[in-house]
Amino acid sequence: MFKLSKYAVVAILPTNAALSLCFSTKTGEMLLIPTKVFDFIKNKEWNNLKSNELLELVRTELLVCEDEDETNFVLQFDEMSQNNNILLSTIQPTANCQLDCHYCGQVHSNVIMSDEILQKMLGRIKNIILTNPNYKTVCITWYGGEPLMALDCICKFYEDMFKFCEENSINYISDIITNAMLLTLENFAILMKCKVMSIQITIDGTKETHDKRRITKDGKGSFDIIFNNLCKVIHSEIYSLYKPKIILRINIDSTNYQEVPILIDFLKKNNIFNKVNVFFAPIIEWGDNGADKVSLTTKEFAEKEIEWLILLYTNGQIHTELLPIRKSLNCMVNGQISEQGTHTQLVANKGEYFNLVKNQLELGN
Ligand code: SF4
Questions:
Q1: Helix (H, G, I), strand (E, B) or coil at 328
Q2: What residues make up the domain containing 252?
Q3: Which of 90, 92, 96, 97 best tests ligand 1's pocket when mutated (most atoms within 8 Å of CB)?
Q4: Are residue 71 and residue 199 in the same domain, yes or no?
Q5: pTM score, whole prediction
Q6: pLDDT for 246-266, tens place per residue?
Q7: Cβ of 100 below 6 Å from ligand 1
Q8: Are residues 96 and 223 in the same domain?
Q9: In the predicted structure, residue 218 carries a pLDDT above the cut 70
Q10: Are 202 and 219 in the same domain?
């Protein structure tokens, strides 16, 4: 018969014990069900479930076939889902950065990608696309060190790759993760020309706090430079013309979590808040660097994050990605781009199971 998926998370509503929220981490779907229905599931009283309830529970994979090896299914699904039509490529054009953030997991050096490496990388990406006709889009993420320290490299890459994409009917999209120290209006215009339409910048709190953690290599604060650049960019005509997505990341630990509402207020006063997407990230350890010594626990962070998301919501910023969607790839670097195969078969198997339950219910009716 059925069993409750081990990837289901169920919680009774704190405001109404008669209702329970069921979140299927396998499908990323949430159902609000009567708590008594959940009791039927726990007690395996399948006959007490109405047909439509049963179908919804199976469709969302909260209920699965009782002999299903779920872990194996998830692993197979992940493996076979990795080959889609987007080629994701993260490029570090430099190993250098002006800053010395205490939580940084990198060792910086004054090195910029050479033309020779750049050409090899272009050749490799083109070769992957030409030998995999499934690819319809190439998505380049510029990452560092600080990628804007190698802006020439970004431009050269774009000019060559965009021409190739046009000739081969491939979409080209791009984003950048930058500390914004060099995000002048001039450089912003270059990024827009290079179709870098999503820009992630980090600000870690008020000037006082930010400047204690995100210092330059010679020990100076970076808040004023970053924030002034951000203001100029967001209030510029170029921004109005291209409307890129600007993501503001706030790295949180126990030393700055109380500043979130103050920072949001500050962004609102500077007419920035409604033009950026704010998100919060816990500070974690990178490569044994001890960055997490004063981090919040996962539970503390999660509890605070709910408050911050409500704060964003009440100020008009709605996070539609609040519930995590099902991902077959935890991180793009885990993808095996040379691997062939699709997840069609597994999806078909799941679909068959759903149809089987549906048919049986219809027959029963
Ligand atoms: S800006 Fe990024 S790369 Fe540079 S030191 Fe800070 S965390 Fe490291």
A1: coil
A2: 82-334
A3: 97
A4: no
A5: 0.81
A6: 999 999 999 999 999 999 999
A7: yes
A8: yes
A9: yes
A10: yes
